C-alpha cells in the first residue's frame, strides 16, 4: 500500500488562513466578508485535524487518537481564551458552556453517530469494554469535579470555586488525566488497541491503515501549527460577529459555547464516523472518549489558571437542567460501554439525548 500524502487542499488551506488573518486583523467586517472568514476558519479547523490525523497515522494507536484529542483541545482552549479576552462581559461562563457542550456533543452526538452509522452497516459491533469503561469513569469524575460540584460548594458565590478550590481541583483534574494517558499508552495499552479484523481485507483500502512517510509527517506537523495559528486569529476576528448573530436570533449567551464545541469537534466527528463505518468502532470510541477527557482534563485547568492571571471571574457550576442532561448522557453511556457490544438501538438512544440537548440549548 502506498504511503498517504497530503492532498493539495490541505497544503493550500494553512496559507489561505494565514493570509486571511493578515488581511482582516483589526478590521470591522461587513457581512459578506465575515461569512468568507467563517468559511476559511472552518476549512482551517478541518485542515488542522487532517494534519493531526497524518501525524497520528505515523505514531499508531493509541497514540494516534491521543494526538488528535490534544490537537482539538488546543484549538478549543485557544478559541475560549480568545473570546474571553474579546468579550469580557460574557467570559465568566464561556468555559463552562463550552466544556459542557463538548461533553454532550461527544457522549451523545459523536458516540451516537458512530454507533448508528456503524451498526446500520455491520448490524452489531464490538469494542473493548475494559478500556471504554475506564475512560468513561475518569471522564465522569472530571465532569463532576469541574462542572457539577461548584454549584454546591459554600465557600464562594453560587457556581464558582474559591482560588484555593480552583487550584486544587485543577491539579486533581490534571493528575487524573495524566494517569489515564499513562494507562492508555503504556501500562494497559492493549485495552485501547483495536483487535485485528477477522477479514484481512476489511478496511484495507482505508488510508488510516497506511503510514505516511517521515517527510510527510514532518510537513503535516508544521502545517498543523500554521492551522492552529490561523484558527486562533480568525476566531478573534469573528468574535464580534458571532456575538451579534447570537443576539439577533434571540438565543441565550450560552449558545456561543455550543457553537465553539460543534465547530471544533465536527472534523473529529467525521473521523470517528468514518472509522465506525469501516468497522473500527474501537478507534471511534478512543477518539470520542479521549477527546472528552482531554476537553475537560486539559481545558478547564488551563482556563482556570488563565482566569486567575487575567483576573477574569470564572463560573463553572452548571444549572439544574444542564446537570440533568449530563447525568442522563453519562448514565446512557455507562450502559452502552458495559458489555462492549452495540446495535442500532444504542445509536438511536444516544442521538435522542443529543437532540434534546441541542433543542434546549436554543430554547432553554
Automatic annotation (TrEMBL):
All copies of domain Sodium/calcium exchanger membrane region, residue ranges: 32-185, 220-362
Membrane topology summary: Multi-pass membrane protein
Record's keyword terms, sorted: Membrane, Transmembrane, Transmembrane helix
Transmembrane segments: 32-51, 63-86, 98-120, 132-152, 164-183, 221-239, 245-266, 287-310, 316-337, 344-363
Subcellular location: Membrane
Superkingdom, taxonomy of origin: Bacteria
Name this protein carries in UniProt: Ca2+:H+ antiporter
